[in-house]
Amino acid sequence: MNPTIHIEAGCLDNAGAIARQFVGGALAAIVSDDTVFSRYGSRLEASLKAAGWDVVRFVFPHGEAQKNLATYGELLSFLAEQHLTRTDVIFALGGGVTGDLAGFAAATYLRGVGLVQIPTSLLACVDSSVGGKTAVDLPQGKNLAGAFYPPHCVVIDPALTHSLPEETFRDGMAEVIKYAATLDGSLYEAIDHLPQTLEEVISRCVALKDQVVAEDLRDNGLRQLLNFGHTFGHAIEKQADYTLGHGACVAMGMAIMARACAAKGLCSPACRDRLLRTLTAWKLPTKTAFAPETLFLHLLSDKKRRGQKLTLVVLRETGRAELTPVLLEEALDFLKTGWEA
Ligand code: GLY
Which terminus of the chain has fewer CB atoms gathered within 10 Å of its CB, N or C? Predict the structure, then answer.
Protein backbone atom coordinates (compact mmCIF):
# COMPACT_ATOMS: atom_id res chain seq x y z
CA MET A 1 0.00 0.00 0.00
CA ASN A 2 1.16 3.54 -0.77
CA PRO A 3 2.90 4.75 2.44
CA THR A 4 1.08 8.08 2.31
CA ILE A 5 -2.25 6.30 2.97
CA HIS A 6 -2.82 5.55 6.64
CA ILE A 7 -5.83 3.43 7.69
CA GLU A 8 -6.52 2.78 11.35
CA ALA A 9 -9.60 2.89 13.54
CA GLY A 10 -9.42 5.86 15.91
CA CYS A 11 -6.53 7.57 14.08
CA LEU A 12 -8.32 10.93 13.75
CA ASP A 13 -6.86 11.88 17.14
CA ASN A 14 -3.39 11.21 15.77
CA ALA A 15 -3.93 12.78 12.33
CA GLY A 16 -1.50 15.64 12.98
CA ALA A 17 1.43 13.36 13.85
CA ILE A 18 0.63 11.04 10.92
CA ALA A 19 0.45 13.94 8.46
CA ARG A 20 3.65 15.53 9.81
CA GLN A 21 5.64 12.68 8.24
CA PHE A 22 4.59 13.89 4.79
CA VAL A 23 3.88 17.63 4.99
CA GLY A 24 5.61 20.57 6.66
CA GLY A 25 4.57 24.18 7.16
CA ALA A 26 3.44 26.27 10.08
CA LEU A 27 -0.20 26.89 9.19
CA ALA A 28 -2.95 24.29 8.77
CA ALA A 29 -6.27 25.30 7.18
CA ILE A 30 -9.08 22.87 7.98
CA VAL A 31 -11.79 22.83 5.31
CA SER A 32 -15.01 21.16 6.40
CA ASP A 33 -18.79 21.46 6.23
CA ASP A 34 -20.86 22.54 9.24
CA THR A 35 -22.19 19.05 10.04
CA VAL A 36 -18.84 17.27 9.92
CA PHE A 37 -16.94 20.08 11.63
CA SER A 38 -19.34 20.15 14.57
CA ARG A 39 -18.81 16.41 15.01
CA TYR A 40 -15.08 16.00 14.44
CA GLY A 41 -13.50 19.45 14.04
CA SER A 42 -12.27 19.91 17.60
CA ARG A 43 -10.54 16.49 17.61
CA LEU A 44 -8.69 17.31 14.40
CA GLU A 45 -7.78 20.80 15.60
CA ALA A 46 -6.31 19.41 18.83
CA SER A 47 -4.21 16.86 16.98
CA LEU A 48 -2.90 19.46 14.49
CA LYS A 49 -1.95 21.85 17.30
CA ALA A 50 -0.19 19.00 19.11
CA ALA A 51 1.81 18.40 15.92
CA GLY A 52 2.94 22.04 15.85
CA TRP A 53 0.55 23.75 13.43
CA ASP A 54 -1.32 27.02 13.92
CA VAL A 55 -4.86 26.18 12.85
CA VAL A 56 -7.47 28.18 10.92
CA ARG A 57 -10.76 26.84 9.63
CA PHE A 58 -13.08 27.38 6.69
CA VAL A 59 -16.49 25.87 7.48
CA PHE A 60 -19.21 25.98 4.80
CA PRO A 61 -22.86 24.80 4.73
CA HIS A 62 -23.12 21.08 3.90
CA GLY A 63 -24.45 19.72 0.60
CA GLU A 64 -23.47 19.18 -3.04
CA ALA A 65 -24.99 22.59 -3.93
CA GLN A 66 -22.02 24.22 -2.14
CA LYS A 67 -19.46 22.57 -4.43
CA ASN A 68 -19.55 25.55 -6.75
CA LEU A 69 -17.44 28.41 -8.05
CA ALA A 70 -18.76 30.81 -5.40
CA THR A 71 -17.67 28.65 -2.43
CA TYR A 72 -14.39 27.88 -4.20
CA GLY A 73 -13.77 31.63 -4.65
CA GLU A 74 -14.57 32.31 -0.99
CA LEU A 75 -12.17 29.55 0.05
CA LEU A 76 -9.34 30.97 -2.10
CA SER A 77 -9.91 34.45 -0.63
CA PHE A 78 -9.91 32.97 2.87
CA LEU A 79 -6.56 31.25 2.24
CA ALA A 80 -5.10 34.52 0.91
CA GLU A 81 -6.41 36.49 3.91
CA GLN A 82 -4.80 33.93 6.22
CA HIS A 83 -1.50 34.29 4.29
CA LEU A 84 -1.26 30.54 3.71
CA THR A 85 2.05 29.87 1.93
CA ARG A 86 3.16 27.12 -0.44
CA THR A 87 4.67 25.07 2.37
CA ASP A 88 1.46 25.23 4.43
CA VAL A 89 -1.29 22.64 4.34
CA ILE A 90 -5.01 22.28 3.66
CA PHE A 91 -6.74 19.52 5.65
CA ALA A 92 -9.95 18.37 3.94
CA LEU A 93 -12.15 16.91 6.68
CA GLY A 94 -15.37 15.44 5.29
CA GLY A 95 -17.05 13.55 2.49
CA GLY A 96 -16.71 13.79 -1.28
CA VAL A 97 -17.92 17.39 -1.57
CA THR A 98 -15.36 18.67 0.92
CA GLY A 99 -12.53 16.58 -0.54
CA ASP A 100 -13.24 17.75 -4.09
CA LEU A 101 -13.62 21.41 -3.15
CA ALA A 102 -10.63 21.59 -0.77
CA GLY A 103 -8.53 19.52 -3.18
CA PHE A 104 -9.24 21.88 -6.08
CA ALA A 105 -8.35 24.88 -3.89
CA ALA A 106 -5.11 23.13 -2.83
CA ALA A 107 -4.27 22.42 -6.49
CA THR A 108 -4.79 26.00 -7.62
CA TYR A 109 -4.06 28.36 -4.71
CA LEU A 110 -0.47 29.59 -5.26
CA ARG A 111 -0.36 26.88 -8.00
CA GLY A 112 -0.35 24.19 -5.32
CA VAL A 113 -0.07 23.87 -1.54
CA GLY A 114 0.03 20.89 0.82
CA LEU A 115 -3.08 18.70 0.89
CA VAL A 116 -4.16 16.09 3.42
CA GLN A 117 -7.44 14.25 2.89
CA ILE A 118 -9.30 13.03 5.98
CA PRO A 119 -12.44 11.32 4.63
CA THR A 120 -15.41 10.86 6.95
CA SER A 121 -17.90 9.07 4.67
CA LEU A 122 -17.53 5.52 3.37
CA LEU A 123 -17.68 6.81 -0.20
CA ALA A 124 -14.87 9.29 0.42
CA CYS A 125 -12.79 6.63 2.24
CA VAL A 126 -12.92 4.10 -0.60
CA ASP A 127 -13.10 6.40 -3.59
CA SER A 128 -12.88 10.18 -3.70
CA SER A 129 -10.12 10.81 -1.12
CA VAL A 130 -7.67 8.60 -3.01
CA GLY A 131 -6.51 9.23 -6.55
CA GLY A 132 -6.28 12.98 -6.82
CA LYS A 133 -9.46 13.92 -8.69
CA THR A 134 -10.54 17.35 -7.47
CA ALA A 135 -13.32 19.53 -8.86
CA VAL A 136 -16.22 21.91 -8.43
CA ASP A 137 -19.53 21.82 -10.29
CA LEU A 138 -20.55 24.40 -12.88
CA PRO A 139 -24.18 25.34 -13.57
CA GLN A 140 -23.75 23.28 -16.77
CA GLY A 141 -22.79 20.05 -14.99
CA LYS A 142 -20.99 18.18 -12.23
CA ASN A 143 -17.20 18.31 -11.80
CA LEU A 144 -16.67 20.36 -14.95
CA ALA A 145 -13.81 22.46 -13.47
CA GLY A 146 -11.07 20.53 -11.71
CA ALA A 147 -7.53 19.19 -11.60
CA PHE A 148 -5.64 15.99 -10.94
CA TYR A 149 -3.88 16.74 -7.67
CA PRO A 150 -2.93 13.71 -5.54
CA PRO A 151 -2.99 14.43 -1.81
CA HIS A 152 0.31 14.37 0.07
CA CYS A 153 -1.29 12.13 2.65
CA VAL A 154 -4.65 10.41 3.29
CA VAL A 155 -5.68 9.65 6.88
CA ILE A 156 -8.58 7.19 7.00
CA ASP A 157 -10.29 6.48 10.32
CA PRO A 158 -12.89 3.76 9.53
CA ALA A 159 -14.58 4.41 12.88
CA LEU A 160 -15.86 7.76 11.55
CA THR A 161 -18.09 5.99 9.03
CA HIS A 162 -20.04 4.33 11.89
CA SER A 163 -21.72 7.61 12.70
CA LEU A 164 -23.18 8.01 9.21
CA PRO A 165 -26.92 7.72 8.60
CA GLU A 166 -27.66 4.24 7.19
CA GLU A 167 -28.60 5.65 3.79
CA THR A 168 -25.27 7.48 3.45
CA PHE A 169 -23.36 4.34 4.40
CA ARG A 170 -25.35 2.31 1.84
CA ASP A 171 -24.52 4.90 -0.82
CA GLY A 172 -20.81 4.27 -0.17
CA MET A 173 -21.43 0.51 -0.37
CA ALA A 174 -22.28 0.86 -4.07
CA GLU A 175 -18.67 1.94 -4.73
CA VAL A 176 -17.36 -0.89 -2.53
CA ILE A 177 -19.42 -3.44 -4.48
CA LYS A 178 -18.08 -1.92 -7.71
CA TYR A 179 -14.52 -2.95 -6.73
CA ALA A 180 -15.67 -6.53 -6.07
CA ALA A 181 -17.50 -6.71 -9.41
CA THR A 182 -14.71 -5.28 -11.55
CA LEU A 183 -11.34 -5.85 -9.85
CA ASP A 184 -11.45 -8.50 -7.12
CA GLY A 185 -14.26 -11.03 -6.85
CA SER A 186 -12.97 -12.34 -3.51
CA LEU A 187 -13.94 -9.01 -1.97
CA TYR A 188 -17.60 -10.12 -2.12
CA GLU A 189 -16.92 -12.51 0.73
CA ALA A 190 -15.52 -9.76 2.97
CA ILE A 191 -18.56 -7.63 2.05
CA ASP A 192 -20.85 -10.47 3.13
CA HIS A 193 -19.24 -10.33 6.60
CA LEU A 194 -19.64 -6.61 7.23
CA PRO A 195 -19.63 -4.82 9.64
CA GLN A 196 -16.97 -7.04 11.31
CA THR A 197 -14.76 -6.69 8.22
CA LEU A 198 -15.12 -2.91 7.76
CA GLU A 199 -11.43 -2.05 8.16
CA GLU A 200 -10.42 -4.91 5.85
CA VAL A 201 -12.98 -3.89 3.22
CA ILE A 202 -11.87 -0.25 3.25
CA SER A 203 -8.17 -1.24 3.09
CA ARG A 204 -8.73 -3.60 0.17
CA CYS A 205 -10.77 -1.05 -1.81
CA VAL A 206 -8.18 1.67 -1.20
CA ALA A 207 -5.35 -0.67 -2.24
CA LEU A 208 -7.21 -1.57 -5.46
CA LYS A 209 -7.85 2.06 -6.27
CA ASP A 210 -4.28 3.02 -5.44
CA GLN A 211 -2.92 0.35 -7.85
CA VAL A 212 -5.18 1.54 -10.66
CA VAL A 213 -4.32 5.21 -10.12
CA ALA A 214 -0.58 4.43 -9.95
CA GLU A 215 -0.87 3.12 -13.52
CA ASP A 216 -3.26 5.73 -14.89
CA LEU A 217 -3.58 8.91 -12.82
CA ARG A 218 -5.03 10.96 -15.66
CA ASP A 219 -7.88 8.61 -16.54
CA ASN A 220 -6.67 7.71 -20.02
CA GLY A 221 -7.30 3.95 -19.79
CA LEU A 222 -7.28 1.54 -16.87
CA ARG A 223 -8.77 4.08 -14.43
CA GLN A 224 -11.92 4.19 -16.53
CA LEU A 225 -12.74 0.73 -15.12
CA LEU A 226 -13.67 2.60 -11.94
CA ASN A 227 -16.53 4.11 -13.92
CA PHE A 228 -18.41 0.79 -13.99
CA GLY A 229 -22.11 1.59 -13.67
CA HIS A 230 -21.39 5.31 -13.72
CA THR A 231 -22.29 6.13 -17.34
CA PHE A 232 -25.89 4.94 -16.94
CA GLY A 233 -25.81 5.91 -13.24
CA HIS A 234 -24.96 9.53 -14.02
CA ALA A 235 -27.80 9.61 -16.58
CA ILE A 236 -30.25 8.42 -13.87
CA GLU A 237 -28.81 10.93 -11.39
CA LYS A 238 -29.28 13.77 -13.85
CA GLN A 239 -32.78 12.68 -14.90
CA ALA A 240 -33.75 12.61 -11.20
CA ASP A 241 -32.36 16.14 -10.89
CA TYR A 242 -29.81 14.94 -8.29
CA THR A 243 -32.54 14.01 -5.79
CA LEU A 244 -31.30 10.39 -5.61
CA GLY A 245 -28.03 9.39 -3.92
CA HIS A 246 -24.98 8.93 -6.15
CA GLY A 247 -24.50 5.37 -4.85
CA ALA A 248 -28.11 4.42 -5.52
CA CYS A 249 -27.76 5.65 -9.12
CA VAL A 250 -24.46 3.81 -9.60
CA ALA A 251 -26.14 0.67 -8.22
CA MET A 252 -28.89 0.93 -10.86
CA GLY A 253 -26.26 1.62 -13.54
CA MET A 254 -24.22 -1.44 -12.50
CA ALA A 255 -27.35 -3.62 -12.43
CA ILE A 256 -28.39 -2.51 -15.93
CA MET A 257 -24.88 -3.28 -17.25
CA ALA A 258 -24.75 -6.66 -15.50
CA ARG A 259 -28.12 -7.73 -16.92
CA ALA A 260 -27.15 -6.49 -20.39
CA CYS A 261 -23.76 -8.25 -20.28
CA ALA A 262 -25.34 -11.55 -19.22
CA ALA A 263 -28.06 -11.24 -21.88
CA LYS A 264 -25.41 -10.58 -24.55
CA GLY A 265 -23.29 -13.55 -23.40
CA LEU A 266 -20.42 -11.31 -22.25
CA CYS A 267 -20.56 -12.61 -18.68
CA SER A 268 -22.23 -15.58 -17.03
CA PRO A 269 -25.62 -15.42 -15.27
CA ALA A 270 -23.73 -16.32 -12.05
CA CYS A 271 -21.55 -13.20 -12.39
CA ARG A 272 -24.67 -11.04 -12.89
CA ASP A 273 -26.48 -12.68 -10.00
CA ARG A 274 -23.59 -12.25 -7.56
CA LEU A 275 -23.68 -8.52 -8.19
CA LEU A 276 -27.49 -8.21 -8.08
CA ARG A 277 -27.70 -10.30 -4.90
CA THR A 278 -25.11 -8.13 -3.13
CA LEU A 279 -26.77 -4.87 -4.20
CA THR A 280 -30.12 -6.16 -2.97
CA ALA A 281 -28.65 -7.35 0.33
CA TRP A 282 -27.52 -3.74 0.89
CA LYS A 283 -30.98 -2.44 -0.07
CA LEU A 284 -29.55 -0.69 -3.11
CA PRO A 285 -31.92 -0.31 -6.09
CA THR A 286 -31.38 -2.42 -9.21
CA LYS A 287 -34.13 -1.02 -11.45
CA THR A 288 -35.13 2.44 -12.62
CA ALA A 289 -38.50 3.67 -13.85
CA PHE A 290 -36.82 6.16 -16.25
CA ALA A 291 -37.14 4.91 -19.82
CA PRO A 292 -33.93 3.94 -21.70
CA GLU A 293 -34.67 6.48 -24.46
CA THR A 294 -34.90 9.26 -21.84
CA LEU A 295 -31.66 8.22 -20.15
CA PHE A 296 -29.96 7.95 -23.52
CA LEU A 297 -30.39 11.71 -24.09
CA HIS A 298 -28.07 12.31 -21.11
CA LEU A 299 -25.40 10.05 -22.62
CA LEU A 300 -25.11 12.60 -25.42
CA SER A 301 -23.73 15.15 -22.95
CA ASP A 302 -21.57 12.64 -21.04
CA LYS A 303 -18.09 14.09 -20.63
CA LYS A 304 -16.60 10.72 -21.62
CA ARG A 305 -18.24 10.75 -25.06
CA ARG A 306 -15.81 10.96 -27.98
CA GLY A 307 -17.74 11.90 -31.12
CA GLN A 308 -20.18 9.08 -31.89
CA LYS A 309 -18.48 6.72 -29.41
CA LEU A 310 -18.62 6.00 -25.68
CA THR A 311 -16.43 3.64 -23.71
CA LEU A 312 -18.55 1.25 -21.66
CA VAL A 313 -17.22 -0.83 -18.77
CA VAL A 314 -18.34 -4.34 -19.59
CA LEU A 315 -18.51 -7.14 -17.02
CA ARG A 316 -16.68 -10.32 -18.19
CA GLU A 317 -16.56 -12.45 -15.03
CA THR A 318 -16.82 -11.96 -11.28
CA GLY A 319 -13.98 -9.55 -10.44
CA ARG A 320 -13.07 -8.75 -14.05
CA ALA A 321 -14.33 -6.01 -16.37
CA GLU A 322 -13.16 -4.62 -19.71
CA LEU A 323 -13.27 -1.25 -21.42
CA THR A 324 -15.31 -1.48 -24.61
CA PRO A 325 -15.70 1.46 -27.00
CA VAL A 326 -19.17 1.34 -28.58
CA LEU A 327 -21.18 3.49 -30.95
CA LEU A 328 -23.93 5.55 -29.32
CA GLU A 329 -26.63 3.29 -30.78
CA GLU A 330 -24.90 0.26 -29.24
CA ALA A 331 -24.86 2.04 -25.88
CA LEU A 332 -28.62 2.52 -26.26
CA ASP A 333 -28.96 -1.19 -26.99
CA PHE A 334 -27.04 -2.05 -23.76
CA LEU A 335 -29.33 0.32 -21.88
CA LYS A 336 -32.51 -1.19 -23.34
CA THR A 337 -31.32 -4.79 -22.89
CA GLY A 338 -30.27 -4.25 -19.28
CA TRP A 339 -33.41 -2.26 -18.49
CA GLU A 340 -35.79 -4.91 -19.86
CA ALA A 341 -33.97 -8.10 -18.77
N1 GLY B 1 -14.21 7.80 -8.97
C2 GLY B 1 -13.53 7.33 -10.10
C3 GLY B 1 -12.11 7.75 -10.16
O4 GLY B 1 -11.56 8.24 -9.20
O5 GLY B 1 -11.50 7.61 -11.19
Answer: N
